[in-house]
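#struct-help
A.M.: can someone run this one for me? Single chain, 259 residues.
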Amino acid sequence: MASYSLSVCAEMVFLDLPFVERVKRIHQLGFGVEIWGWANKDIDALAATGARFTSMTGYLSGNLTDDAEIAQLLHSAEASLAVAERLNCPGLNLHGTGLNDKGLPVKPVEVVTGAMWLKAAETLRQVAKLGEAAGRVFTLENLNLPVDHPGTPFALAADTLALVEAVNSPALKMNLDLYHAQIGEGNLIELLRRAGSAIGEIQVADVPGRQQPGTGEINYRAIARTLNDMGYQGTVAMEGWASGDSTAALEQFRDHFTL
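D.P.: on it. Structure tokens below:
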């Protein structure tokens, strides 16, 4: 029996169903559920599904480095915590900057300066204090620059790990997305071992195509063994598209992480 639990991002599977029905279907198949932004969703209807929510986006707008944007991020992080309480969702996800509806940075950054690093760490300390007070964990997700998120600061897993370790709070962890890490950095098993206790969540999809494990080049069976050997007890979430039938894709995901 693996030490971790499995979850699925409802934004990317069962696309023919209304969103609440997607959540119900994922729950019926025995997975936890993850969602992105909550502002356009019926929170009461989601709560009524009985699903086990594991992660949601933890802000609506803003970034980590600009004063006016920091204020937006902190304000919307507080609002997100209130929604997380309604959904009994323990994890709230952040990115290195605000993203638009195409996943691109609202304010692209070509060069990340030392001053920006210091400002980002201080902002994340404030976010962590919000999480500590609410008894919930914010996670900082790595993103890939070449394919999906060019111009995003603090995008690499090495960057998110450095910031999480600098803040050193139980309420701020990494959301280590192995799809993004494979494109941006590779060497995934050593990355997992290096990150260790800084990991709050693992997200997965295969490369290329961002579809379920088993459709591309990543050896997710070896990843599963590594996580189990590490004693990782958090969530492994499929944040990827189904290559065909969504139910079959989720079963393939489950198979690759069943020991």
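A.M.: thanks! The CA atoms of residues 157 and 181 lie 6 Å apart.
D.P.: also worth noting: The domain at 33-212 is CATH 3.20.20.150 (TIM Barrel).
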